[in-house]
Design goal:
Length: 322
């Protein structure tokens, strides 16, 4: 299954019309005959753009009164336009198209909570609706490759069988202030976040899936009670066939399977350097160029939940509060 993973461009000067000149390559390896449009729809289903496309965010770095990164505008590359590129592409010829994506203001005052909708005049509404354009060029090309890796063969075998989807719905977290204050005693970087709020996000891992299948929620900035309201899907084959082990059913795996949820604080402004090599970003051999080094994010806490209760419940739903 293809999943979206966040990438960040290099930082440029904050001017009225900034030019980024950044390019990121993504390589997707699919079995012959697999519809690319279907994979794109599946990947965008859990994206921040609401399932309608690939989301983009424009961030601005502030230096006063403290160094921090803040999102100021958002845009979405429509899924329909990407699928149209795939459909209209001529055989084995690259397709290039530039999109002018309207930016929506995402700074303070852009939500109805901060500005009363009854007294907001037309000028403010227009400013909130559109805040410029983001020019994005997409180049799409296809090629035929021969894959002989044994691990890829095993993955293909699993993907051909029947699958079920384990959905993890992360609702909200609380009590993070105590964890932040405790870490502040030993980590000076947590001193300021423990006072104003942490940039919280959650990593979800299933014990029987590979590390590449780890999912993350969106980041909720400067809060001690983040409301994620994020739903993440983990497709799993009903029958697991590996080259060096006997076949196992998903029910057998769930008997001892666990889901690990880690709450992290995202540290802003510590990224540096560029890397041009390719890295894995999904279970279908999706690759992309890593633009930043590891962020040095700080682990606030984690919980490990058993999955055997999924087999016992007829509805397949289990609510955990931890």
């Amino acid at each position: 299954m293809i999943t979206l993973k966040a990438y960040r461009t290099a930082t440029t000067l904050c001017i009225p019309d900034p030019t980024l000149h950044d390019a990121t390559k993504h390589k997707i390896s699919l079995a012959e005959g697999t519809p690319v449009q279907r994979e794109l729809v599946t990947a965008c289903a859990g994206a921040g753009g609401g399932g309608g496309g690939v989301p983009f965010e424009v961030w601005c770095r502030h230096y006063y009164p403290n160094v921090r990164d803040q999102v100021i505008a958002k845009a979405t590359l429509p899924l329909a336009k990407m699928c149209a590129m795939v459909t209209m592409q001529k055989s084995m010829q690259p397709s290039v198209q530039t999109f002018n994506l309207p930016l929506t203001h995402a700074g303070p005052g852009s939500t109805l909570e901060s500005t009363n909708s009854h007294i907001m005049d037309a000028e403010k509404r227009a400013k909130c609706v559109q805040s410029g354009l983001l020019d994005v060029t997409v180049r799409y090309n296809t090629s035929i490759t021969q894959v002989s890796d044994a691990s890829v063969d095993a993955a293909v075998k699993n993907s051909k069988g029947a699958q079920v989807c384990i959905t993890v719905h992360v609702i909200r977290a609380s009590g993070i202030k105590a964890a932040a204050e405790s870490l502040a005693h030993t980590n000076s970087a947590m001193q300021y976040p423990s006072e104003v709020g942490v940039n919280a996000y959650v990593k979800i891992k299933l014990s029987f899936l590979s590390p590449e299948d780890t999912r993350s929620t969106r980041t909720v900035a400067r809060t001690f009670a983040p409301d994620f309201s994020t739903q993440l899907d983990f497709p799993c084959p009903l029958l697991w066939t590996e080259s060096n082990t006997d076949a196992l059913s998903l029910a057998e795996i769930l008997q001892t399977g666990e889901v690990t949820l880690e709450v992290w604080h995202q540290v802003s402004g510590l990224q540096s350097g560029l890397e041009s090599h390719y890295v894995h970003t999904g279970t279908s051999d999706v690759k992309g160029r890593r633009l930043i080094e590891k962020t040095g994010d700080i682990l606030l806490g984690k919980a490990i939940l058993p999955l055997h209760n999924l087999i016992l419940h007829k509805t397949g739903k289990v609510l955990f509060i931890f």
